[in-house]
Every structure is written in C-alpha cells, then in structure tokens.
Specification:
Number of strands of chain A: 5
Bound molecules: iron/sulfur cluster
Shape of chain A: flat
Number of helices of chain B: 17
Structural class of chain B: alpha/beta
CATH superfamily of chain A: HupH hydrogenase expression protein, C-terminal domain
Mean pLDDT of chain B: 79
Strand content of chain A: 15-25%
Radius of gyration of chain A: 22 Å
Order of helices and strands of chain A: HEHEEEEH
CATH class of the largest domain in chain B: Alpha Beta
CATH topology of the largest domain in chain B: Rossmann fold
Oligomer: heterodimer
CATH architecture of the largest domain in chain B: 3-Layer(aba) Sandwich
Low-confidence stretches of chain B: 1-5, 318-372
Largest sheet of chain A: 5 strands, antiparallel
Distance between the termini of chain A: 76 Å
Number of strands of chain B: 9
Order of helices and strands of chain B: HHHEHHEHEEEEHEHHEEHHHHHHHH
Number of domains of chain A: 1
Largest sheet of chain B: 5 strands, parallel
Number of domains of chain B: 2
CATH class of chain A: Alpha Beta
Low-confidence stretches of chain A: 14-19
Chain lengths: 147, 372
C-alpha cells in the first residue's frame, strides 16, 4: 500500500446523504430546537445558541443541516487573532458562526439564534474609550500650526 | 516566563498584549464549548477571567514520557501562546523554560516563595518511591521530596496524565520503581486528575482555565476527574453507536465491517468503560479521534488501563468485567447472538453500580500495588 488514497475506505453516514433529499432524525431534532428558540426570542426571551461541537454529527448530517437552513444575506468577518465568520442563514435571526484561530483551525462552531450575534455589541466602557481617543486626536490636531 | 510582582489582572495583561475583548470572548467561547458549558457562558467566562489575577503555575515533570506536555503545547483553544503569556504565569517548567540547572531550580523556589498558598501545581508523571526515590531526581532532590515540598504552598494540584493521576505505565505490573500517583503521596490539598495517555489538550487547558476563572476546584467524579470532561463514556457519545445498537461489528481491521465504519467493540474497544471527552472534543483541533480513525479505544484515561489485558480483546475479557459484577461477558453468554448484544449490554451497563465497580477496581489497584 504505497499511497493513502489506495487504502480502501468507504465512509457510511448514519443518516442518508444530503443528496438523497431525506432529512435524518438528528437533523430534524436540531431544526425543531432552532424553531423553538426562534419562538422564544420573538416572545421577548433570551437569545440562544446550539453548540455544533456537542452534537455527534456526521459530515452528511452537517451538509443536510446547512441545506435546510439555506444561505442568508449577511456575512460578518471577525479579524481578531484569526479570521472567524458569522453568516446569517436563510432563516433570519439564525446565524451560523465559525470561530477560527490564527492558524485557520476551527475552534468553535455555533448556530446562534439572536437578533445580532452576541460577540458583536460594544460595551459602554469601550464606547467611552473610543470617544476619549477621538477627542485626544482632535485636540492634538487643533494644536497643530495652520489650524 | 516573566514573573509579575504587581499582579495585573488578566484583562490588563490582555490589553498590554493587544488582545481585543472580542478576540478574548472568541477564545472563551471556544473554551466553554470544550468544557461543554452552555454556548453563551463563554462571554461570562471571558468577563470573569478579565477581572481575575494572573495566577502562578508551577509545572513539575516526574516519571513520564513528556507526551502530556507535548499534548498541552499542541492545544488549539486557546492556543498555548495565549494561555501561557496572556492568562497564566508559567513560572517553572523545566522542559519549556530557557533556564537550566541551578538557575532553573532557583526560579522554582522563588516562584513558590513569592506565591505561597496561591500557585497551581501541575504534576505530570508518577512518583517513584523505590530506592528512596532515586529513580527520579532533579537537582539532587528526589521527585517525592520535591512533590511534598511544592505541594505545601499550592492552592490546588492538577495531575496531568494517567501517570500522575493513577500511576499509569510506570505503575503497571511489576511496578519496578514503586511508582505512585500523586494522590497517594499528598492528601491535604485539593487534587484534580486530568487523566489520559496523554490527556486531550483542551481538557488540560479547560481545567486550568475553569479553575482560574472561578477560583474553585470543578465538580469531580469518584476518581477526582472534572465531570464536565469525564462525565460520559466514549461509548455514550460515539458516532458508531448506532452500529453497536444494531449489532453491526467489525471483526477484523480490514473486513467489510471495518470498511463500513461499524462498531469496534469486538476488536477490543474499551469505549463502554472509558470516561473521557475524545468522542466530542476530539483531537488535533477537533479533527478526529481514535475510533474515527478506525482504531478501538484503549481506555487510557482509566486506572490500570495498562494491566487490563490485551487492547484487542473484547471487553468480555475477565479483567475488564470484575468478579462478582455483571460483565459484558456474562451478557454475551446469556444472550448469545451479536445482534442482541448491543441492546442487552446497554441495559446491563446501566444497571451496574458505577460506584461499586470503581471501589472494586480501586481495591484491586491497591492490592496489586501492595503485592508488587
Ligand atoms: S464499542 Fe467503541 S466503537 Fe463501538 S460504539 Fe462503543 S465506543 Fe463506539
């Protein structure tokens, strides 16, 4: 056996492949959970999230889940210490987040059910620090000759 | 390995290193995920950690193979650089530190003195007690003496790996060096066992971060392992479980069943009696775990895994099912056909008193150790 590719391995998904169009029981359960969380959010409840890592999903399941949620219209890229992406799915308020480290490795994956993903909002102390920074910059510019 | 006397908070350290709050939340969210905490708990953990003081960590390696440290420095979430330089103050680790010889020993003694009562002591490797501890000595002192001295000023001890947790390979029959786990030598400090040969890197860092963020020892199982990581068996969370339940087993490593990804129980999988997070946290940044690569679980995070017979004998082998208990072997004898085994074994294992089983295992361990 000289090449890895020559090792005869067949991967069998425990749910039918996405291409067959049949949705497996595991994926159905996740979709129902998302729907429940959407209802709760609409009724004034807290945002929710489902940790993709905690679900024993086969690649086939994942494909099916992504297909069932569909593509959405918002894509967010977070650039701190590696590029992470948050994509809104075809269901508004349902976000597919993938956090990566600086080596591009996936370190966490979530389906977030929220108006805005929790990592985005800025805290008041940061807003104040921003304002201070701008004022200091403006004061510095005002003191320069010619102003 | 700087040591900071002014004790900055972790948040201040992060700012000095240009790590933004969102980036830190990202890492804490990943850590919360590895800890099996609710996904939104990462944010709370980030805020707690930002307000916490940067703790001193002293890492001592005794009778070990360095596999545990290799595992730790390949940690993905958070990356070890972040963990070491931003969150913890690793004051002594003779394998990683640049200093050597007397200088290194001085650094250790100084860190112990400056942080007396507050540092986290991480131990990797078992502690040989034979020949007055001569089998493992550092700077002229035996491991057992160093451990006793270092333990005195520790806030808590984290045993990394099966060797420091349960004795591991050095403790295996005939235990020529009279090696002991840390908990048999130190009895007056909180001890957390992060077992595994080696442990999963995220489990090591997760345990340390959880301790740092809450200041408390996490909930532990009967073997002092953090329940968040060791609360389920590999079998509980194994993606091959549907095949087990259907009685579809690979009989050899290259048969049709193996190629189809069927259950590895008959090839010796110890997943049903092994508590660890491999099936969910996985290895190499979540890439896969042994069963996913086609190899049965060896049971490396359990006490005495090395002395329980062949890795390739099915669990029905007598050393895994203890005398007087319902063992998978009994189920096999009664039920017969493989198709029924899955369901029947599930029922039988659930019916076992885990505590009782562990007591029996523990007394066997002690007897075996005494005999050696
Ligand atoms: S016996 Fe092993 S391979 Fe089979 S389902 Fe259990 S853990 Fe997975």
């Amino acid at each position: 056996m000289s090449r890895l590719g020559e090792i005869p391995i067949r991967i069998v998904s425990r749910t039918p492949a996405a291409s067959t169009g049949t949705i497996g029981a595991g994926v159905t359960a996740i979709l129902i959970e998302i729907a429940t969380q959407l209802d709760r959010l609409a009724d004034g409840g807290e945002p929710g999230a489902i940790d993709l890592r905690s679900l024993p999903m086969s690649p086939g399941d994942r494909e099916q889940l992504l297909k069932a949620l569909g593509p959405g219209e918002v894509t967010i890229t977070l650039k701190g210490d590696g590029e992470s992406t948050i994509n809104e799915t075809g269901i508004q308020g349902v976000w597919w987040s993938e956090y990566r480290d600086r080596g591009g490795e996936l370190i966490a994956g979530f389906i977030e059910i929220a108006q805005v993903p929790a990592i985005l909002p800025v805290e008041p102390d940061q807003l104040r620090r921003g304002a201070q920074q701008l004022r200091a910059g403006a004061a510095g510019a005002a003191q320069q000759p010619g102003n | 390995m700087a040591h900071y006397h002014d004790q900055p908070t972790i948040g201040e350290m992060l700012e000095r290193h240009g790590v933004s709050r969102r980036t830190f939340i990202k890492y804490c969210t990943a850590m919360a995920s590895a800890l099996a905490l609710p996904p939104l708990a990462g944010r709370a953990m980030a805020e707690q950690l930002r307000a916490a003081l940067r703790p001193s960590v002293i890492y001592l390696s005794f009778q070990e193979c360095t596999g545990c440290l290799e595992s730790l420095i390949r940690s993905f979430s958070p990356s070890i650089e972040n963990l070491i330089f931003d969150v913890i103050s690793l004051d002594y680790d003779d394998t990683l530190m640049a200093a050597a010889g007397a200088q290194a020993e001085m650094a250790r003694d100084k860190a112990m003195k400056d942080n007396y009562g507050k540092y986290v002591l991480v131990i990797d490797g078992s502690v040989p007690t034979g020949a007055n501890g001569a089998y493992c000595a550092l700077g002229g002192k035996s491991a057992v003496d160093i451990l006793r001295e270092a333990a005195k000023g520790a806030a808590a001890i984290v045993c990394v790996g099966t060797c420091s947790s349960f004795g591991g390979v050095p403790f295996a029959d005939p235990n020529p060096t009279q090696a002991w786990p840390v908990s048999d030598i130190v009895s007056d400090k909180p001890i957390v066992n992060v077992s595994g040969c080696p442990p999963i890197p995220e489990v090591i860092t997760g345990t340390l971060l959880q301790f740092i963020s809450t200041g408390k020892v996490p909930d532990l199982d009967e073997y002092r392992r953090p329940k968040v990581f060791f609360g389920n068996t590999i079998h509980d969370r194994c993606y091959r479980r549907p095949f087990y339940d259907q009685g579809k087993f690979a009989k050899s490593f290259d048969d049709e069943g193996a190629r189809n990804g069927w259950c590895l129980f008959e090839l010796g999988c110890k997943g049903p009696t092994t508590y660890n997070a491999c099936a969910t946290t996985k290895w190499n940044g979540g890439t896969s775990f042994p069963i996913e690569s086609g190899h049965p679980c060896l049971g490396c995070s359990e006490p005495n895994f090395w002395d329980k017979g062949s890795f390739y004998s099915a669990l029905s082998a007598p050393r895994w099912g203890k005398a007087g208990e319902v063992s998978p072997g009994d189920v096999l004898k009664v039920v017969g056909g493989a198709a029924a085994v899955g369901a029947a074994l599930g029922v039988a294992s659930a019916g076992l008193s885990r505590l009782r089983q562990r007591h029996i295992e523990k007394s066997t361990t002690n007897n075996e150790a005494k005999e050696s």
